Amino acid sequence: MSHISVNFLVVGDTGVGKSSIIASFFGEKIQPIHLPTHVLSASHCTFAFSSKEVEAYICDLPGSEHFRPIVSCFYPGAAAILLVFDLINKHTFNNLPRWMHDIRETLPAHSVVVLIGNKSDLEKARVVSRAEAQIFADRFHLRYFEVSAALGLNVGLAFDVAAGLVLDKVEERDGATSEEDKAVSSCDMGEEERLIWKKLM
Ligand SMILES: Nc1nc2c(ncn2[C@@H]2O[C@H](COP(=O)(O)OP(=O)(O)OP(=O)(O)O)[C@@H](O)[C@H]2O)c(=O)[nH]1
Ligand SMILES: [Mg+2]
């Protein structure tokens, strides 16, 4: 099985559920109360996708405004960004253009962004419709998923699709489709970014 390593970044406003999505992806229960992330942390796992072994480095970043410049430092090393907003908090949806602005400034051309509306289990409290989120996603050519970290709904799918999009881009770039056994790297990091990512592991 050929192998690819993918650096995932999970970003979005504070409280949207980034840490919860990561916990859910690892099959863990989410924290019932909001404990804001202050320390950058990364988790590592491997999963099979489309006959490839995906080695995933998933970086959990704080969402508060204060950390925004630090968060931006990580975009150049990311192969996939999961941009999360909260389906029951309009403010987090209205802030998406700002996130996209920061991301687009530094994200490598071959990296991918997936938009995620979290807390789909709280349907009655929803204030962002699927249609308006889809319009935003279409505007920026993003895939859009509604997930529930609390129920573990669609979380794995979002990571799978992000990994698939990265694979497509890598194959497009390297013409690597015929070289199944070749280990491919999902993103070209500068030495500085590589050191930052390494420190997190
Ligand atoms: N009902 C419901 N609550 C959720 C879901 N995901 C997260 N939460 C709750 O939302 C709150 C914030 O979740 P976190 O994962 O800490 O949010 P975060 O985006 O990591 O926040 P920061 O670290 O401050 O940036 C917590 O109280 C979670 O229990 C979900 O899918 N459904
Ligand atoms: Mg967090």
UniProtKB/TrEMBL annotation:
InterPro entries membership: P-loop_NTPase, Small_GTP-bd, Small_GTPase
The keyword Protein transport is annotated on this UniProt entry: no
Span of the signal peptide: none
Sorted UniProt keywords: Nucleotide-binding
Domain of life: Eukaryota
GO molecular function: GTP binding; GTPase activity
CDD domains named among the record's database cross-references: Rab (cd00154)
Protein family: Belongs to the small GTPase superfamily. Rab family.
Protein name as annotated: Ras-like protein Rab-2A
Organism in which the protein naturally occurs: Penaeus vannamei (Whiteleg shrimp)
